[in-house]
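Appendix B. Chain record.
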Amino acid sequence: MTQQPNHQDQAKPGEGRADYLPPVSTGRISTGRNVPASGPVDGTDTSRIPASERPMPGPAPKEKRVTRAGMVWVSVATALVLLVLLIVFILQNQDYVQVRFLGLEGAVSLGMALFIAAVAGGVLVAIAGAARIIQLRTAAHRRAQAVRTPTVK
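Structure tokens predicted for this chain:
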């Protein structure tokens, strides 16, 4: 004979059943299904599965820390790769070309001429950047002076 379960026989939360787990909140607006936030995406209701049968979550991802040594290492590695590419470029462009600039004239390899032009362009950009930084620091210094010495009327 089969016995019908009695309402008095059913365990209440925290009573009787060791494998009872309360419903898990998803942190979202309810869709009518009780699906935990970390549960399967197929909509399977895992809240009624005993804890011993639930898949264990994987280890929490470790926090990635950026250190100065790591940044220096990446910078040096990048600089070395760029240096190798530069050397390859210069070696592949060994043809001599005639260069004239402000009355000066000479013959230099094409790779070296382009390298010198790139360095000169970088120097000009650095000078312009330094001028702008000095301008911004001067303006910040003036603002700080104005805040420290209030005007008397």
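Further analysis of this model is presented in Appendix C.
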